[in-house]
Amino acid sequence: MRRKLVVGNWKMNGSRLANAELLAALTAAGPWSCDVAVCAPFPYLADVALSLQGGRMTWGAQDCSSHEAGAYTGEVAAAMLAEFGCRYVIVGHSERRAYHAESDQLVADKAKIALAHGLTPIVCVGETLAEREGGHTDIVVKRQMSAVIHTLGHCISQVVVAYEPVWAIGTGKTATPEQAQAVHALLRTQLHAATPKVEEMQILYGGSVKADNAASLFSQPDIDGGLIGGASLKAADFAAICRAAA
Ligand code: PEP
Fold first, then answer.
1. pTM passes above 0.90
2. Where are the domains of the chain?
């Protein structure tokens, strides 16, 4: 049976003081019987590592470079994230695809380099509202997933997938459990053709997950936890979501 995983995506929020308070409150609220991680902005990773080391919660980053090292001003290498004890790195978040024009292939290359450095990439896929309303959800998420499958080959089994409909991120609109389950099942079927280990793979849902809708989403057979944005910034809300997954 797959373990549930709940990951907080802090995005570009926080301060050293606020993060310390948040992590102390979460540590006091846990542990939970699901896996829990937080993905922090780069400058805070050392603090987060210090706060969480030796405990049950793990941590990660929100992006990495597709390059090993070199003249790439402003980028952060997967090897550097590994040095700070990161377990996860989010790649292909819709905000990166939209604001930084990240292509499906770039996302796949980031997933590959993350794996090469011992990190677990959390690969985000998801359709926009226009794509959903146009009836293109399946084509879009399969195209995004397919680039990663082709680049990673059998190593695809080592990634975590996050289905995040763009129209649900930060909007307060959540996919219904049935809508989300339908896309998760579609992704699992696609992954099935690529790896015999598909039943071990965690597919998370993200998009306005809150304490009051988490349990119904997480009870779906192919939803293995959540990628949580806004609600991961408040200890009580995030803890309640972790409880719903446990
Ligand atoms: C996200 O940014 O990955 C996300 C799911 O955000 P929110 O929970 O705020 O919709």
1. yes
2. 5-245
